[in-house]
Amino acid sequence: MREAVIVDAVRTPVGRGKAGKGALHPVHPVDLLAHALRATVERTGIDPARIDDVIGGTVDQVGEQAMNTTRYAVLAAGFPETVPATTVDRQCGSSQQAIHFAAQGVMSGAYDLVVAAGVESMSRVPMWSNVGPGQDPFGPGVAARYPDGLVPQGISAELIAARWGLERGELDAFSAESHRRAAAATDEGRFAAELAPLAGLERDESIRPGTTVDVLSGLRPAFEDPAMAQRFPQIDWRVTAGNSSPTNDGSAAVMITTPQLARELGLTPRARLHAFSVVGDDPLYMLTGVIPATAKVLERAGLSLEDIDLFEVNEAFASVVLAWQRETGADLAKVNVNGGAIAIGHPLGASGARLATTLLHALEQRDARWGLQTMCEAGGLANAMVIERL
Q: Entry's Pfam families (predicted)?
């Protein structure tokens, strides 16, 4: 089987995702994704006609993000009309799944050169826009299987905190450290090589330098609900806006090919896509799939946890990463070394490609070899992958 390698990875700065409040709000989602796609071509100097497919991830595929956003981003980027595109939805892991599909296509011989990407404009297409009033996205079959009902992600984050005994102070301390690391990475220029500035935005907009545990400790619980308190008496309401990821706008793109074609095109293979996993897990706890996904991808890679130099674990909520750490025993000094989604932001469909972009650059900056990335996803899903810097 052929190898799949990354030759470029780029992202926009992540903008605040509140309507009218962020620098990227004026940018249509199609143009937001087109910017990252165009940047990959400009940075590599390839003829875009060589691209066999563009696979993009978007979560809320409605309104301005409907009708196969990735196809129209390809056209908006100025690529030839002959370059095809599709848009996938594996919730928060959509663009990580796009990377998996792209790499697997290259490895199988179905593609020679492909771009995996993702976009989400949460300021223009708010979360849950794709579910209308009174509509049930789950159906009677799911209701019959789970008669007590599934819960929103915030409640799942609370259940995780309760099950793993994560105190409010731990969640807030982890979140403050995410902001500290992200602010330091920004100030020291560690994000510069991965960013394609847009709309006057040159740095991630949600990072709050100087965030402290004292500041975060003053925030009220974000998901407190009397009905849920009665159903789940173990919850004592530790999850706040400060130890959760914000809503954001952003896009990212990763160019994948074979080592042979990379050399033919005058490009340097920067990392090998080594192993992949995708798992299903308890949809009530919803966000714990990163634990079995990590175990599965390490087994497939033939590696141990100790072999991994750097981890990117999506910070949907602090409780998710800390529960993952409790189960795996990973060294938090190796996890999200440049900060994570709590600070940088979580533009849903773009986050998988954003994490991959940040992971690749961090491995290069630290002269490290192995990186592992994993993301929790709504419905009790998770992706994981291992990359090897070359």
A: Thiolase_C, Thiolase_N
Task: Tell me if 125 sits within 8 A of 111, measured CB to CB.
Answer: no
Least Cα distance to 21 among 179, 222, 246 occurs for 246
Beta bridge partners of residue 257, listed in sequence order: 5, 113
Rounded (5°) CA angle 324-329-332: 75
Give the per-residue pLDDT at 1: 86
**Tokens at 67, concatenated:** 């009708």
Under a CB-based contact definition with an 8 Å cutoff, are residues 388 and 308 in contact? no
pLDDT single digits (tens) 18-35: 999 999 999 999 999 999
Helix, strand, coil share of the chain (percent; to 5): 40, 20, 40
Q: Which two tokens stand for residue 233?
A: 């008496």
**What SS3 string covers 79-109?**
CCCCCCEEEECECECHHHHHHHHHHHHHHHC
- 313 φ, ψ to 5°? -120, 120
Q: Report the pLDDT averaged over residues 287-306.
A: 98
Annotated active-site positions, please? Answer: 92, 346, 376
Arithmetic mean of pLDDT over the chain: 98
Distance CA 269, CA 265 (A): 11
Amino acid at 236: D
Contact 316, 83 (CB under 8 A): no
133-163 pLDDT tens trace: 999 999 999 999 999 999 999 999 999 999 9
* CB neighbour list of residue 48: distance below 8 Å, 6 or more residues apart: 41, 77, 78, 79, 80, 83
